[in-house]
Amino acid sequence: YAKPLLSRPMRIFRDVKHMVPDSDLPAQISGALRASEFLLLLASPEAAASQWVQDELTTWCETLKRTASLIIVHTGGRIALDVENRRILWDQTTALPPALQPHLHSIPLYVDLTWARSDTDLDLSNSRFKHAINSVVARFRNVDPNEMAGEEVLQHRRNVRLRNAAVATVLAFGAAAGVSAWM
């Protein structure tokens, strides 16, 4: 998303891509967490109840001490807030795993996608979804989220110009080769 045409894509570890018979998945996940700059938590009641998620968050927050690099995307359930005291009401929260309680001392910034349920909701042509994606990508790239929309447009224009220049160059060389072969 908003990636320069010739740059390498961001490496993303997803355990479902690495599940093969007879592999040590916990060791792979632990290694991936240690090598990662960010952890994206899709907060939901299912994630809150998952022992795997609890273990990953314990590694991320306690062992690696990277709570500040945790990005929460709220996809379902409830994150109950006491706005006046700026804290999470853990006894009423169903979307966040209990392993986070000792690490989140105030209300974290998180992206709310609880409204997104259909394919049209999860499309970059949907301005609300695009704004949410801009927030996450801005964090990955350490830029202001308000600048990401403009960055995406600028990068798209650069990519189109680069692609068009490459096509024109190939066509020019092809024409030159054709003329040379004809002569």
Q: Can you offer a commentary on this structure?
A:
The protein has 183 residues and is mainly α. Helices cover 45% and strands 9% of the residues. It has helices at residues 25-35, 45-49, 51-63, 127-141, 145-182; strands at residues 39-43, 70-74, 81-82, 87-88, 110-112. It has a 3-stranded parallel beta sheet with strand order 1-2-5, with helices on both faces. A two-stranded antiparallel ribbon has the order 3-4. The longest helix has 38 residues, at 145-182. It is elongated, with a radius of gyration of 22 Å.
CA-CA gap between termini: 46 Å
Percentage of residues in helical conformation: 40-55%
Which overall shape is indicated by the principal axes computed on the Cα atoms? elongated
Mean pLDDT: 86
- The total strand number stands at 5
SS class: mainly alpha
List segments where confidence is low: pLDDT < 50 over at least 5 consecutive residues: none
Kindly provide the radius of gyration, computed on alpha-carbon positions and rounded to a whole number of angstroms.
22 Å
Side-by-side strand order of the widest sheet: 1-2-5
Briefly summarize what is shown.
The chain has 183 residues and is mainly α. The protein is built from five helices and five strands, in the order H-E-H-H-E-E-E-E-H-H.
Features:
183 residues; 5 helices; single chain; mainly alpha; three-stranded parallel beta sheet; elongated
